[in-house]
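Duplicate of #3305? Posting structure anyway:
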């Protein structure tokens, strides 16, 4: 481990204390896991604490752990990974936060802390169905407004739920249930 990672690890342990669920060093990177209940407070601390000073959110992505290592995960299904950078200290940090409820994955929005989280949170909502409480404009960003489901979830059908075809008689696009979703709904 480099001196810089040692220094960052020590600063995180001293500043965050028992709010750290795990702090793992792998391949020269630190990954901090925190509870959903502590996420907003930890994010604010990471930005405002002078010994840490993570002033930039570089990326935020949703994850679905339902099929991870053939079900080996055993914890909550949905997670977000947030990548932060401190220009002042030349540090990077990954934060992982698991949504406690698999049926309605919900986490607090960090857009008030880092405005760059806005579109990333909308993407995680659109593709995974993770709701970010307190987000000012949480709506789909990549799929159509009428899109059904969340296409990056592991259980989403590869053919989707709706099939688009062009009807030459009516000269318009027609939407109908996809063949695969019809086959699933038929009784055996």
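Output from current build:
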């Amino acid at each position: 481990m480099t001196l810089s990672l040692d220094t960052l690890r020590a600063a995180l342990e001293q500043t965050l204390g028992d709010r750290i669920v795990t702090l793992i060093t792998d391949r020269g990177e630190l990954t901090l896991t925190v509870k959903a209940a502590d996420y907003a407070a930890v994010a604010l601390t990471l930005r405002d604490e002078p010994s840490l000073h993570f002033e930039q959110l570089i990326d935020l992505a949703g994850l679905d752990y339902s099929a991870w290592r053939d079900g080996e995960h055993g914890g909550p299904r949905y997670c977000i990974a947030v990548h932060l950078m401190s220009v002042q200290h030349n540090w990077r940090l990954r934060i992982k936060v698991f949504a406690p409820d698999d049926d309605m994955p919900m986490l607090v929005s960090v857009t008030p802390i880092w405005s760059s989280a806005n579109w990333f949170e909308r993407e995680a909502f659109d593709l995974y169905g993770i709701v970010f409480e307190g987000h000012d404009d949480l709506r789909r960003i990549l799929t159509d407004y009428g899109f059904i489901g969340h296409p990056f979830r592991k259980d989403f059908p590869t053919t989707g739920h709706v099939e688009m075809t062009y009807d030459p008689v009516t000269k318009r696009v027609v939407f109908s249930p996809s063949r695969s979703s019809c086959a699933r709904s038929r009784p055996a």
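Confirmed duplicate; merging threads. Residues 181-188 have pLDDT under 50 and may be disordered. The chain has two domains: 3-143, 157-188.
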